[in-house]
Amino acid sequence: QLAYSLMFEPVDSTVEHERFRVKQLIKQSIKKILADGNASGEFVLDDLNTAALCVVGAMTYVVVEPLDPAQNTKFDHAYKDYFSKQIADFCVDAVQKK
């Protein structure tokens, strides 16, 4: 519930600014990974910034439903591992050279 609140609950402008700043830091890290992948030939991306934004968006918003306190969902360790792998696989598939 705390993770959901930190990411999605309405907040004042200072906290909202920090949310944005953290997402920008994550985007920069992802962009570096994508640039390294482009350099090695693993990825072929023309617009690293947009690709990084898409990955951050996917990683951030995919957890809305599972983290929503109204869902009252309890995840065991096996499902958390499965869910995390699905997110990671989706993001890698989105940027991987076809």
Could you explain the architecture of this structure?
This protein has one domain. With 98 residues, the chain is mainly alpha-helical. It is flat, with a radius of gyration of 15 Å. The chain has 5 helices and no strands. This is TetR/AcrR family transcriptional regulator. InterPro entries: Tet_transcr_reg_TetR-rel_C_sf.
Structural class: mainly alpha
Query: Regions with pLDDT < 50 over 5+ consecutive residues?
Result: none
The outline comes out as flat
Radius of gyration, taken over Cα atoms and rounded to an integer in Å? 15 Å
Mean pLDDT: 86
Could you say how many structural domains there are in total? 1
The ordered H/E elements are: HHHHH
Major pleated sheet: none
Distance between the termini: 38 Å
Total strands: the figure is: 0
Query: Into which percentage range does the β-strand content fall?
Result: under 5%
**How many separate helices?**
5
Q: How much helix, percentage-wise, in residues?
A: over 70%
Organism: Acinetobacter baumannii
Protein name: TetR/AcrR family transcriptional regulator
InterPro entries: Tet_transcr_reg_TetR-rel_C_sf (IPR036271)
